[in-house]
Fold this sequence. Notes:
Blueprint: H1 2-8, E1 18-20, E2 33-44, E3 51-65, H2 69-86, E4 96-107, E5 113-127
Parallel strand pairs: 1-2
Antiparallel strand pairs: 2-3, 3-5, 4-5
Amino acid sequence: MAQIASTLASTAGVDGRVYRSRVTAVARAESPILIIEPVSDTAQQFTSLPKLDWTLRVRVVVVVRSDNSYTDADPIIESLHSKIMADLTLGGYAQDVQPVLTAFEFLDADKPAGVFSNEFDVKYRTTVADLTIE
């Protein structure tokens, strides 16, 4: 998660406003922003080796407050996708990264908001006995 946040810090259009698991409301003046959240982390052991193959589902949410949130979010989504997919090992922490989906939500507020959820599966491996060692 920290590597993803670091990778996305220079995403076009967000001026470094990248948060991990933010739970507070986004003020109009703060947007657009990115919020990175873990969705799930599942493990499977396919072989007799003492290894676990993990899939971490990560959601990167783009929040845009504007009358044209859909079109205003496009270059941000394109930039974050390119940044994540540029290094499928996330600096050596993963074996692969796969895009899964993008969901769209439009909200009525004092100024219209668009919330665009982009999910990625991060594949990585650990030993059975120690989650910090591959």
